[in-house]
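#struct-pred

JT: dropping the chains for the assembly here, can someone run the whole complex?
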Amino acid sequence: MNEIKLLGKKPTRHGFGEGLVVLGEKYDNVIVLGGDITGSVMTSYFQEKFPERFFSIGVAEQNATTIAAGFALSGKIAFFASYSAFSAFRNADQLRISVAYNDINVKIGGGHAGITVGPDGATHQALEEIAFIRTLPNMTLVVPADYTEAKKATIAIGEKFGPCFIRFGRSAVPMFTTDDSPFALGKANILREGKDVAIVACGLLVWEALLAAEELSKKGINARVINNHTIKPIDVETLVNAARDCGCMVTAEEHQVHGGLGGAVAEVTAKNYPVPIEFVGVRDKFGCSGEPEELMVKFGLTWKEIYASALKVIERRDKGFIGYRQVKDVEDYKE
Amino acid sequence: MALEITFSDKTFENKKRNPDEFSEIALEIRRDIIKSLYLAKSGHSGGTLGTSDIFSVLFFGGVMKYNPQKPDWKDRDRFVLSAGHLCPVLYSTLARAGFYSPEELYRLRKFGSRLQGHPGFDMKLPGIESSTGSLGQGVSIAVGMAMSDKHADKNNRKVFALTGDGEVEEGTVWEAAMAAAHYKLDNLCWILDNNDCQIDGRVKDVMSIYPVDKKFEAFGFDVINIDGHNYNDIKNAFAKFKSNHESKIGKPTAIIAKTIMGKGVSFMEDKYIWHGNPPNEEQAKIALEDLK
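RK: done, full complex below.
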């Protein structure tokens, strides 16, 4: 299990695009709607292969979302993808009423998510949609960690009945899962065993978590690394076991620290097995232009923050700071 | 004397009718609306009364294909109430068509009722094709259904959607209109209930949509302007849509129906304050007198 290797780099959006083609081959009733950026979110693969089942809607995310609902109400498995900044927020009301409340087979792809979309800047860097999407009843929300997992996750949400959202990115990111790696919606994967601290991550922060765990091991600290790809429904059992076994946790995500994976993990542990948690993510700020790697450093989304947070949370656990801090230690999320 | 509410168990057939046959049906629907809203103590009186004539022709004049015994019949035509707040008129219509017992009308907006304040797909009420209530979404769903029918399944089903006139102030409505024309949805019939009333006042004052017929024409619709209370007009408009569909005209149809909010109830007619209010006991008595 500790034999995870870097297998190259590829964007998760390619996994999404290829997953759609697999679904198209397998199921006649899969249709895909385009939102003008098909070549960016890779719905173009499906369009090339199944032009008769691809429908361009133009730059109209609200309309595309409700049209997808119309297709789903007609027996189709309807996918629509755009940039996550627009396919989770511009259409928020449509997602809530026509998709989630209807509880139908609409599948939304949120591409170019997070700050790693890079030079496009803050307007296009969705950092809040995990918080929103996971509050919608009936929704499934998955944030795959790499290309291979994105492909599997796309196929999985196509095969699961009901509204689903998949979040993926633009830039090429480390590949480390294989066709043989386990993947099931709602089942988090333990990538590395350990009992000193649990690191729970999603998306491209899973790789950073593995790097942090490697560094921690040099100090004799064995971190359990959990790839929590499905944010909803969340894997309560794996998280509670991790809290019980490790007594402290770090969450890591390419998202605001409020309401995202960290929030979901905190809800689960607060209710079932409270332990101190440190949250790695964007600290209540908008992004800015830059190369993905530069932004990862600027916003504190690398293995180094995970590593530092692990040491800090272990200390908190050992000092008994469970559930409270000294007033002088209370942290504001602002830097 | 206290007002005692009873709903008749009358149902009506869906068949070709002479225009004068619709008034009896519309009257029954209007009485249902007043009674159910009075019992609910909340809800929308104005637009529901104003569209009762259109619903009578659409569901009982042989326009739509449906089977109340098999609400999920795969060849049925579909109706999406984009103006979800008008559901009391749809609930009455579906009950009078035999989808469920008119007994359910006693329970409009009540706890545990399938007759939600705005249509809820989760209630599995026969005849309800989607949740609606957030304005502008239903018509876009109807566009998706019509695309699925015409371009994916290539069948002969028809899709009807009804929006209010205040509703078309929502921008997404025009995204839907653009897509309907782009995909040449001659199987889509968009009915606009144009009573020129919305919650805050006259549509022309709150945010003018006019000339709304020219807007739909410019978007590529076949536009039919009608008096929404003239059964002959309504019938002919649906007949025109049917021929547009059968001849594959390659355009969606928009029926702009001039209606009077609160039609049939003297003190409610053309008064926008009745957009979202139910009658109280005294008002319900007068209304039911008017609707004899």
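JT: nice. The longest strand of chain B covers residues 188-194. Residues 22-40 of chain B form the longest helix (19 residues).
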